[in-house]
Write a structure and sequence with these properties.
The protein is of the alpha/beta class. The chain has 11 helices and 13 strands. It has 2 domains: about 5-30 and about 65-150, Rossmann fold (3-Layer(aba) Sandwich); about 155-280, Hypothetical Protein Tm841, Chain: A,domain 3 (2-Layer Sandwich). It has helices at about 15-20, 45-50, 65-75, 95-105, 120-135, 140-150, 165-170, 175-185, 205-220, 235-250, 265-270; strands spanning about 5-10, 25, 30, 35-40, 60, 80-85, 110-115, 155-160, 190, 195-200, 225-235, 255-260, 275-280. Helix 3 crosses helix 4 and helix 5 packs antiparallel against helix 6 (about 140-150). The chain is globular, with a radius of gyration of 19 Å.
Length: about 280
């Protein structure tokens, strides 16, 4: 019995990672001035931010059509018995539920879903872990069980320049956005129960980043330094890389990588957002 791994574009895995681990990807889309673009396929991160920087109207994001998942599963059924399909949080997108609905419509292959309850590079960690297990011959049920264990060690926090993007996109309450704007705060946000909520309200970006660094330090102590972490940026690569370099010096046992908020997630966070996520490294 062989198991295929499917995810969506918001894991923001590189083409090299997808090829190395035999990961199959179904893209979400952004609509800019009535033109639709599939992220990671027909529009890149940098081109997206250039296009929308001066737009008064927020782009729209759309989940993949169920038909795209059906086509993917039917193709995978030729060589696989099972699929583990891993997606961004069902609390902010219908992609996960659409993937499961498609699985019910395809014969010859069993589809197991995993709601990452998060997005971006942290979602990508789940996907890579699943793909490694699949390459070792693990069954879909075993893979899902391992991902659930992995979730217990994961954390992610991010800082936005403008809460209005999240509010306008329906991912944050109007009240929380208004308070943030009035106080000129840089709240540290996180996922809780599958949705984005404020974690702490901090007055400056520098202090907010320091708070996230302190949270990483707590995790490093808890897990004896066995941590993998991602710095995630919304088209502010120089700042993200500088932060990663600084943190790598402070936490030499942590394996860092640099990632990004692509078009779909960037639509809701806005350019200049930055974040960090981590999990306990496997032995």
């Amino acid at each position: 019995m062989t198991t295929a791994i499917v995810t969506d574009s918001t894991a923001y895995l590189t083409p090299e990672e997808r090829q190395k681990y035999n990961i199959h990807m179904v893209p979400l889309s952004v609509v800019i001035e009535q033109e639709s673009f599939e992220e990671e396929v027909s529009i890149s991160m940098s081109v997206f931010y250039d296009k929308v920087r001066d737009q008064k109207q927020l782009p729209k994001t759309t989940q993949p059509a169920i038909g795209k998942f059906i086509t993917m599963y039917e193709e995978l059924a030729k060589e696989h018995d099972e699929v583990v399909t891993i997606h961004l949080s069902s609390g902010i997108s219908g992609t996960y539920n659409g993937a499961l609905q498609a699985g019910d419509l395809v014969e010859g292959i069993t589809v197991y879903g995993f709601d990452s309850e998060i997005a971006c590079a942290i979602q990508g960690y789940f996907v890579i872990r699943a793909a490694k297990l699949a390459q070792q011959g693990a069954t879909a049920k075993t893979i899902v069980t391992e991902l659930e264990k992995m979730r217990d060690t994961m954390s992610a926090y991010f800082i936005v320049n403008d809460l209005a993007h999240l509010q306008r996109g329906g991912r944050l309450s109007a009240g929380a956005a208004l308070i943030g704007g009035l106080l000129q705060i840089k709240p540290v946000l996180h996922f809780d129960n599958k949705v984005i909520i404020p974690f702490e309200k901090i007055r400056t970006r520098k202090k907010a980043m320091k708070r996230v660094e302190d949270l990483l330090a707590q995790a490093v102590e808890k897990y004896n330094g066995a941590i993998e972490a991602s710095i995630i940026h919304a088209n502010c690569e120089d700042e993200g890389r500088a932060w990663m370099t600084e943190l790598a010096t402070k936490f030499p046992t942590v394996e860092f990588k640099l990632s990004y908020f692509g078009p779909v997630i960037g639509t809701h966070l806005g350019e200049g957002s930055i974040g960090m996520g981590w999990f306990k490294r496997e032995n």
